[in-house]
Amino acid sequence: MTPSRSKTTSFSLFLAIVFGVLVCILAAPAQASSSSSSSSSQPSPSADVDLICHTSNPDECYPRVFQPTDEFQAVHDDQELPNGLHVRLNIWTGLKEAKINVPDEADPALEGLPVDQAVLVVDPEQPDAPQIPRGAPEYETVGKIKEPQPEYETHPFFEAMKMLKSGVSEGGKVFDDALEGMEELSHDIYYGLKITEDPAVLKALFCLMTDHDLPSAEGTAPRDQQAAAILAGALQNNPTALKAVDKEWANIMEFKCPKSGKPLSEGFYSSFMPPDSTTGADAKQFASRAKAKAAAINGLIKSDFIRAQFLQNDGMRNLLEVLVPEGKEWATAQRKVGQVVIDTFLDGDMGAKLGQWPRTPRSSDAECRTDEGQMNEGCWDYHAQRIMKANKRDSGHWSRDLHDRLAAVRKSGKVGTRHEDL
Q: 167 vs 171, 200, 201, 217, 260, CA distance in Å?
């Protein structure tokens, strides 16, 4: 080998050694970084992941879109869940968890428990409880509420009951206050039923309701209005209370009120309003009294039997009488009457008994303008139209609905008869 060739070989070997050393030096940081990354249990979110942070501590932030793994993880309320995950909810704690869904994977938490169509079957706590016999009547929950404790028998409500049963009607402010407290509680299912299941209390209330001339203490509502409000409250959304009144209805109507000595039927089916009640300073009070009585009628005629009796005895004439006055103080009472008639006889969606009323053809407008004819049963259309024209700017006024429904019934020919089979 020549000296020149030997020098060239030595130089090449030197370059190879230097290159190898440089490669080793550069690879060490990358290996350290890789080792450090693999030793971490959970990588930090990427910089472009949208995070939710409720505090200034970055460790408490979490991704807006839930990132599932093979293990269940808690899901925050404000996180978005991707589709196709296995999600479970603890119904006792409200904790929601999710993970990657694995088809046909069995949940160890459900092992040993009977299931039927993905619904967990839970054995009853009282396996020896009696079974309901086939064909047994349906259990009615209305009125089945916890009764007051015995010490509540001294409650003012029961004191009012005692006063009514004893025939008190001239008892001054004490009696008026008792009626007012009774009205406040009458809307409760329990107290409403207590009122209606006592025939003596019912008869006393109807006697008060039909007497226009009873005195009342200053600052309290008239007693006929209070009695009507109590009956209306007791019957509102209380079918059991209505059944109690329905059962006693014939006896109530035959009862003779102590003050007048006349059967209740005469007062109940007579005028709502005394003479000269539609004008003057007391018109607003008379309108309030008529509204309360219309509310009581509304509850009563939900009974098929009482409604038939009401129609047979021309009770609709009394309701129509409320539509005759033209003063603005009568507006709310008239609206109440309109709603009663629509809901009871004209609107099937509200449970109305269609075809029972109206029972006569429409009367002419000329006839309904006269003092003698304005109370004819065929004049409902006229008075509804008159009130509608007075409120023509209000497209949703109740009178428009009453007028249109009356017209539709008459056009269909489905008009009832004046003689009901009871």
A: 10, 9, 9, 18, 13
